[in-house]
Amino acid sequence: QVQLIESGGGLVQAGGSLRLSCIASGFVLNAMGWYRQAPGKQRELVAQVWSAGGIYYADSVKGRFAVSRDSAANTVYLQMDNLKPEDAGVYYCNRSILWGQGTQVIVSS
Length: 109
Hints:
Blueprint: E1 3-7, E2 10-13, E3 18-25, E4 32-37, E5 44-49, E6 55-57, E7 65-70, E8 75-80, E9 89-95, E10 98-99, E11 103-108
Parallel strand pairs: 2-11
Antiparallel strand pairs: 1-3, 3-8, 4-5, 4-9, 5-6, 7-8, 9-10, 9-11
């Protein structure tokens, strides 16, 4: 079955860290993205990693977030440090038209 399963969200204080994981099943990792959606806002791209090693970060997370991939585990990670209240939302893993169910991040100030 082709699917993406995210985990690792939770409640954290501002300045804290979380590590999100996205396990892919049914296909081999290629270009993978992490998106987030805050209440009342559009879903936005946070980070993208390509098979060749290229990485993109939204300006709002540069220097604080790091995306990585483990091909052996078929998993993509998003390390989030120095979290801010505006980072809160549901984080989704994405590959082309395939989306995970999302994992919620709550950042208390």
